Amino acid sequence: MLPKVVLADGKLKDSVLNGLTHVLVLFPASLLAGGELPTGLPGATLLKRVLARQKKKPGAMLRVGAANGAIPVEPVVPEAMLAGGGLVRWLALDMDAPVFQIHQQLRLALAGLLAEQPAQLDIVFHGSAGFVAGVLPEAAYVAAVNRVALPKTVTAEKVLVTRTPKSAVAAKAAKVSEIRLWAGSRDQAFLKQQLVGALARAEANVLTRALCVLPPNQLTPGSFRALLPSQIKGLGIRTEVYDVGRLKKLQAGAFLAVAQGSPEQDAAIIHLSYSPTVKTAKSAIRPRPGAKSKAAIDTVPSVALVGKGICFDTGGHNLKPARYMAGMHEDMAGAAVALSVIQAAARLKLPVRVDAWLALSRNDIGPGAYRQGDVVTALNGRTIEIVHTDAEGRMVLADTLTLAAALKPDVVMDFATLTGSMTTALGNRMSGFFASEAFLASRLETCAAATGERLMSFAMPDDYDSALESLVADVKQCTLDGEADHILAARFLQLFVGETPWLHVDLSAATCKGGLGAVGTETTGFGAALALAFIESVAAHGIARPGPRF
After folding, report:
1. Is the pLDDT at 73 greater than 90, yes or no?
2. CATH superfamily of 4-199
3. How far is residue 28's CA from residue 13's CA, in Å, rounded to a whole number?
4. Which pLDDT tens digit goes with each residue over 367-376?
């Protein structure tokens, strides 16, 4: 549950400032160009005293050992005690910096305030209308995602006590705080509109992280399915379940190969679907002339989200060593992203049809587990030679992508913590992606830049297919070499989307020690803000004609 976020009325006076408890004052770094503090800066007198005591000039807020004077990742954030005993901090933001850097500086500046778990946090904006409009939603987003405590199972601390996945996801922090934004006499209606989108991103990120941190005995494929009704209640999202029995009838052999190792047999592909109302649909881009009622809905663009949902990954018969098995309860991050984003899209009532496909299973070791050398038949009829049982993600995604593509969406977008080679290539500070169409790659890169979730595009030339040639089946699942496995995985997955425009995001940044960008926890929720921004761009601009494949 997010804290309450409100826009304050009027301009903050120093008399009011002195009575607050936790305050962050934001202003553009450009106002320090003259070497003096900007006129009218809230708490300026106090800030001058702080800088004088430290024998620093205002320009010191722009650099930490940086010879070129550029604002570094680690910002200089002076702080002081207010007359009423509260704490105030000041941050000069370079609005020309990438959004990732702005988010990181905001997060680090807020950390000292949020560490005290304040019942109320005040963020004050000083600068032009353009500065306020640009930074206010980002500051609200960063403050909101870092003010929510993630689920814990504890008895000694009265922070969060979670006993079921349902209560864990819905758990509240010990204090439900309020975040108050002081924007002065700005266009309140416009800022409120911006705030709605920012808080939708924040909520999607928080839900993604809350699911990812649940221990594997609390979040199983079955319990994941059980919590879905509470997450989509009242949003008009329909649910369709492809359980093991149904998947057997459909002959979804790729998914079932992974699922068969779990004694509970609670694996399933969950199809969640959101369609805008007729009224909302009419606001979509390029509706068919004269379209009415259901026809109007048929004309809106459609996006299918596919999420890998391996609730725990042992590696199967190719058992992971202990150090690599740690954290494998978060191998369902892709499914968490898909769920959180369709929830956000429905709450925002976006004029886009969104289908979310959650591939929920575990990769267990047991008498029934699939083995190296097995040959299985996927839902689309393609036979697959099993080379490594720890390459289970592409197996569950294969059949799930087939189902998603069968509904002929304008674009399929999958999220998965898929390959170690992507982490080797990029580390865990950004994620990599593949696109079947150039225009999709460009669109996603724009969304990544806008949300601060950094992405790197990878090519997937067709000559890599030679590595997946099999003597006993249509295709190998992977190779044992591990070389370029992120590319091979993409080439493999593309076999199951046909000609449908497709994006594949390999979530190498799903976890990052010390936090990443806007998020201060090791579990980052990467992908939620990105996917929501992509769907919002589709709502605003539609889907362009497919360009050349590459």
Report:
1. no
2. Leucine Aminopeptidase, subunit E, domain 1 (3.40.220.10)
3. 19
4. 999 999 999 9
